[in-house]
User: What shape does this take?
Amino acid sequence: MKSIKTIEQLVEFMSHATAQDHPKMLRHIDIPKNIFDLYATWSEQGYTRNCLARTDDYELILICWSPGATTAVHNHSQQHCWMYQISGNLKEERYSKPQGQLNLTRESELTQGQFTYMHDRMGFHSLTNSGSTRAMSLHIYVAPIDQCQIYDPETGTIETKVMAYDTAAKTLI
Assistant: This one.
């Protein structure tokens, strides 16, 4: 497999890929950060979700993280999710499926060029920009995710959250 050097090449690959192809594809991403910068938006209050491409079969989202930004503890609505770290550092915390109280099962630190995988059968997880600078990550979903389940630590319950984009790259969708 050749290196994937542009977002357009990534979209082209995704249009023919199966879920089994995604890990191999992630090892061949060689897209310069400045290409992702063209699609990046930032919020000092947290993170932004920038859709690079979406079809019935997959969704590519660029997430831009301010320092300290964190997600709620969430699942992926039974979808496979691969995450590729473009820049900065993210800490991932995985939890067994919450039933009144979270049980942390794994912590890991992702640095530039690393990737990870998540699926609901593995539990729930949260991500945090653990660095002092901005970070970017590419999230690849098999089938788009329009909602997910989040854990509410105040009530110990799971609630449904409708997902939204901060931006969408109309030329690539």
Notes: The chain has three helices and eleven strands.
